[in-house]
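Note to self: keep these together.
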Amino acid sequence: MKAWISPLFAAAILVGAGSLAQAKPISRIIAEMGLTPEDFSVVSATTTEILAGGIPQVGTERKWSNADTGSQGTVRVREVRDNCVHFQHLIQPAGAEQSREVRTRNCRDASGNWVLAP
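Structure:
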């Protein structure tokens, strides 16, 4: 489960921290985005699903929703370059009027595992 959540934790840091000098606890960042830890698990599982078949094609998209919280969103492959997949996450927390965008990048390591890249 730790491997599933880590890419989205990094994404939350990118969204929640205005600069690298202003680090916040991940629990606070998740809360400020309006998502629950369970929402993050669903988003992360969706991203992992896209990567499970190897290198996906640009435009590949999966919708997700958490029936327990009402949060929903979409994970989309926006670019594949240099053995890396760049994702665009459109996240709409329960009760939010607008979705929020988060971008992440996962690359294959020497062993063929997908890892979050800066």
